[in-house]
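ok trying this again, last paste got cut off
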Amino acid sequence: MTPPANGDNGRDENTGRFLPGNSCSPGNPFTGKVMRLKTALLDAVDEQDLQDVIATLVHKARDGDVAAAKVLLDRMLGPAKEPPEEPPLDPREIFKHHLSFLSPGGLSKLVALVKNDAGTKAAVEAQRRVGEGVGSVRDEDG
């Protein structure tokens, strides 16, 4: 193995993993302790103990214990996910949506009405009439 230009970096040349004894990768110092604790827990609890705990959890959940129901459902179905946040409505998109209901002639009339102040009053009156079911911009187009 030819050492790289910056010196021997303590890695296997084929895999790139740190080699045993490399001080840059001492590993997790708690791995042994965690393994011993898990072994002790597994030795202390048998299958019947686990079934008893589950039965108690189910009983409490049925009696209305919300925390027990949450633990039970989280373990059975996985934790509930937050619904995605809906993006805020873009006023331009709302405007485009409403304009899509106008016929081409109705759109040009609306633009002409909005361009002058008197037309704005007429547009408001037309909106009121449409809301009351008296007429519509499409009806005036022919």
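PB: full thing came through this time. The mean pLDDT is 76.
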